[in-house]
Design goal:
- This protein is an alpha+beta fold and about 750 residues long.
- Among the domains are: about 1-165, P-loop containing nucleotide triphosphate hydrolases (Rossmann fold, 3-Layer(aba) Sandwich); about 230-400, no CATH class; about 505-685, Alpha-Beta Plaits, CATH 3.30.70.1620.
- Helix content is about 60%, strand content about 10%.
- It is elongated.
- Residues about 595-600 have low confidence and may be disordered.
Amino acid sequence: MLKSLEVFGFKSFADRTRFEFDSGVTCVVGPNGSGKSNVVDAIKWILGDQSAKSLRGKDMLDVIFNGSAGRKPSGFAEATLTFDNSTGLFPSESTEVQIGRRLYRSGDSEYLLNQAVVRLKDVKDLFMGTGAGTAAYSIIEQGRVDQILQANPTTRRVVFEEAAGISKFKSRRVEAERRLERVEQNLVRFRDIVTHAEAQWHSVQSQAGKATKYREISEELRELWTGLAADEFARFNQRLKQRELEFAEANTTLQSLDEAMHRVEREQEAADNELQALESELRELQRAGAVERERMASLESTVRHQTVRCNEIAVEVARLRTRRSRLLVEIHSAVNQRDQSRELLTQLEHEFAKARETVSAKEEEFSLLNKQVGERRSDIAKRRNEFKEKQQLRGTLQEKLITGRSQLDGTIQSEGEAQLKLEQVERNLQQASAERQTRRQALHEAESACREAKEQHERLAADRNSLLGQQSQADTLLVELRERRSALQARLSILDELESRQEGIAIGVRDILKRAKSSRYPPWNGVIGLVRDLLDVPLEWAPVVEVALGSRAQLVAIKSLGPLLDYLQRGPAAVEGRVGFLSLQEEGAIVEHTDAGVQRKSAPRMSRVDLTGRPGVIARADEVVAEFEGAAGLARRILGDTWIVDGLDVARALMSELAEPCQFVTQEGELLTADGKVFLGTMPHESSIVSRKSELRQLRNEIHQIERGIESCQDRKEILLETLTTHDDRIDEVAEELRTKSLLVTE
């Protein structure tokens, strides 16, 4: 029972005003303009009325006291209803229930239940089934009584249900159905998410397996490279030790050769000293012979003694010549050993540069010694010539000296042979030097070949890294394509399931399609399919076309209406719900079959008005779709009267200009029909029959393109793998060639 109403700042009630509705109060009376209607408006406003028009205003802020000549405007409006709940009418333990509402000039508002802030839904639920509400029978405006009396049974039934308290349960049923629909939608989304997650999980699991295998192979490769490096280091270390030993042996041999050379030089110097002493003695004898020539006869015995002495000197000279020859042989042997040492040093010169410099210094010293030996040899030859002259002079002294001279000539001949041998040794030395130069040239060429092989190896390695990068990119692209394909296939599976269940298609239409699929007799064998199945609608236009089609999307296309009408005339067809048929041969003919009977209608005619190019006009609806084979002219027949525009303002302006009726649909899904009706609301769900069919076609096309991309990527990977194999073989060949050249350089 209503006990009181308290208002403050609401419309004409600037001050806080309280109305007490005691037992027996049945009406509120007063002169015009006293605020009687404002009391009813306050009650409706508290109960949750959201229409400013029903509250006799243009804007909801109009309910706030706007001020007068002597009063300032109020900052907010407040109204409170108090109900007696002693009978337990409301689901509350309190004996009184207060419902309030506040509205501030900032636009903020709030609802109060027993001074606690609540939602509008809570207020509506509280009054549900009590007959109190903005649209309930408890508040009836002027003229509505006659409207209720003249209303159809359906409208009167709503009033009676509200009075009987049934509307509360119907509202709960609608709310429960909405919740079930949301749960179903969430379930579909969750299935989509689960399918996508499973596909990603399989992909990630595959990637994890590949990553694990990659780590194992990388670890094995690292161990192999480490072992190979250790083996290479051990081999190089062993070769280095071997070269050090050879270098030490060469140094020892060189030192022994130097010592032998010094010893030979000392012996040669001693022989030269002895020869010089003998030549000095010979000169003295020659002088003595010249002085004593006049006393030849008396000094015959002295001559014989000198002859003996000369023979002894000749023997000593022969001995010295022999010793000199032996020394020359030793020099030749030393030269050969020196050549061998040079060859050994040539082999080691790339590994021991300092040793090569030392050997070069020794060679220069040896050349200097050879030069000194040559100078000594020239001096000896000069002295030999002088000795020959002295012998010729001495020949006049004694004939017996002829024998000694002959022996001396033989010695000279032996010395000439030794000289020839020495020249041969020098030629051999020059030949060895030429061979050394040739080997140096070959070594230089081998080094150049090594550099070229190394550069080629580096180029091949760079190319291989580039190919590996391309292979990695191909692998990444392949994984992305496969993941994309899995996601699209999951989405396709969901839509296929909805399509197989014919979700969104009326029960009667399903029944007709089932009959057409299983029957070979008329009229069902003339059924071609649904209108939406005969139109190829791009996915981006599918929601707009679905709004434009409306219920026509579920029209059953049939070749001719004659067999169908004959069939229906023979007897009623058991069809559940409402089914529409469209004849493809009889233009403009549509038949609707219901439980109540058959009704024939005309299909919409194509508009003869051309709005192409007008501001805000996008296209005619039939121009954005295509028709499948056998359905020529279908789009023009059912969509020829519909134009797609930017917004409702454009549609209203065009509607006012046109004499011929047309309907307009916006890209947001708003529809303005030819008879002036406006339909608003959200766009159709993505699984609606037209959008679903368009998305299925697009998904299949995308999956086909992705599969072609996967095949192309796999072919690319195979080509890269073959190229990598060829590069690896070439790298091995170049590495082997580089190893061979390096061995040649080392040797």
